[in-house]
Amino acid sequence: MKKTHSKPTNPVLTSAGIIIAALGLAYIPIPGLQRTVIIVSGTELQAPLEQLEAKFEQENPDIKIELKFQGSQDAVSKFIDQKNDFNPTVLIPASGELIDELSQRYQAQNNSEPFYNQPQPIAKTLLVAIAWSERGNALFPNNSFSWQRVEQAMQTNNWEAVGGQKNWGSFDFLLTDPTRSNSGQATLSLWAMSKLNTNNINNIDYNNPAISSLFSTIKKSVYQPPRSTDILLQEFIARGPNDADVATVYESIALSRWQQSGKNQGKPYQIYYLNPTVETVATAAIVRQNVDSGTANAAKKFVDFLTQPEQQKVFVQYGFRPTDNNINLQSVPNSPWSQNIPGAEVNPSAKTLPAPNQKEIGEIKRLWQRVN
């Protein structure tokens, strides 16, 4: 019989083939093994999260991030009431107080822990006011924001009566819907404190007739308040002076959209720091409801990724203050704090207070819905 001789195998080529195959398995997602992590965030984080999503997926091809954006109060309420048509993995509302509210409501209904891990702070921002320069100069002649002056402008509904020009027409103030958005709730909390001449949230009496009258004045003056802060700012910029004069928004989006305001209206708005103001800390929580441990582990990778210095710098570029205190705001490339934005301050002297807690939010929503 004729013998057949097989060609000797080249060990170098074999090893190379094994390495290539291994790399392929490592970097090419295998169907059925890729984890999908659904992130529900407040709209104020949309721009940085969309940028960071692509970077994370490139570094972690076995994990797919799906981003969804809602008003912060909506995000909590829809999760508790199971009104989403999807199963969230991570919730990142605008403030840690809303995470506390979710935890208390969930445990009351289900008698179990709602989260896999301790919720993680992601980025910080302050509540500020913005005004078109001419309007701001007339309403705040000493360049210092005043709730009393805003209320006076609302009551007269006439710019000429508060130092403005007759052709400016009516006074138009914008805030978000306080039944759906954290910034609207924070606005009413600070305004109520000013009305009662206190800097202590615990001293606010929402049954006080003066507060009921104030809420009524505000509610009559704002038309169809938007559900989220970023939507409000986009409307403010698009409408411009005469249709939108003063608004309360987060410092982060006020800084990140400032150049857009100049392009749309010729002259950009100015930022005013409230004193006291509210600091909100966007906080990420990995939920247990309908989330298995493998998906929770994938979610933890993403949350940890967001807190690393390089990603924190991306948040700074979008006007957020980092949770990493070692990062210098002005040294980050493309930082808004190095762009000479009118009114912007690296270290504002205003006293900062926490966002309204669950009890106060309940009082604010109740009174807002009750007044005419």
TrEMBL record:
Q: Does the keyword Cell cycle apply?
A: no
Domain of life per record:
Bacteria
Annotated membrane-spanning segments are 12-30
Keywords, comma-separated and alphabetical: Membrane, Transmembrane, Transmembrane helix
Record organism = Plectonema cf. radiosum LEGE 06105
What name goes with this protein? Substrate-binding domain-containing protein
Which lineage ranks, top first, belong to the organism behind this chain? Bacteria, Bacillati, Cyanobacteriota, Cyanophyceae, Oscillatoriophycideae
Pfam families (alphabetical)? SBP_bac_11 (PF13531)
Q: Does the keyword Transmembrane apply?
A: yes
Q: Which GO terms describe its molecular function?
A: molybdate ion binding
Q: Which InterPro entries match?
A: ModA/WtpA
Biological process (GO), any one: molybdate ion transport
